[in-house]
Amino acid sequence: MNEIAFEIKTHESGAREVVPLVDGDRFRDIVARFEEAAGFSTPGSYAGIVPDHFRFGPIINHFMGHGDWNPGAPAVLGCDCLEWGCWPFHAVIEVTNDRVRWTSFLGPKKDRNHSGLGPFEFDRAQYEDALADLVCALGESDG
Questions:
Q1: CA–CA distance from 129 to each of 66, 124, 135 (Å)?
Q2: In terms of C-beta density within 10 A (0-12 exposed, 13-18 middle, 19 or more buried), how is residue 74 classed?
Q3: What torsion do the CA atoms of 86, 89, 92, 98 make, to the nearest 10 degrees?
């Protein structure tokens, strides 16, 4: 079982970047290491998503896989230029009564095979607690 957390970084522009942490490691670093080990000619330049720049809908819905943008397989990472659509990284998010799984990863270059990455499986209660902390830190209402 993996553990999830979310880090918020504030850039000079004031924009806030939401970076998932899996088992204490930034998910963007996990993906970058995977792509480098897989021999991708240009590993992604990933960052978190920036809800201040794009309306993802309620962040809790987004990371539960049923948000306003690409339901079922939302972008969990964006480009390091802070424009998520430049170099997005999507995950299928499957939610059951007691688990949340991230699987079937897809980056902007559709010919890349990420099948050896993950899956990452989280205890749903721990996942929801991490999302509640994120909602509070962002100053959103959890509905």
A1: 17, 8, 10
A2: buried
A3: -120
User: For residue 84, what is the DSSP state?
Assistant: G
**pLDDT tens-digit map of 47-73:** 899 887 777 778 888 899 986 666 678
- Write the single-letter amino acid at 42: T
> Measuring CA to CA, which residue among 45, 61, 33, 27 is closest to residue 138?
61
**Cβ(76)–Cβ(20) below 8 Å:** yes
pTM for the model stands at: 0.90
- Cα-Cα-Cα-Cα dihedral sign, residues 104, 109, 112, 117: negative
Beta pairing class for 75-79 and 89-95: antiparallel
> Residue 143: what pLDDT?
44
With tokens 């997005």, the residue in question is 88
* Beta carbons of 20 and 120 less than 8 angstroms apart: no
Q: What region does 20 belong to: left with phi over 0, alpha with psi -120 to 50, or beta?
A: beta
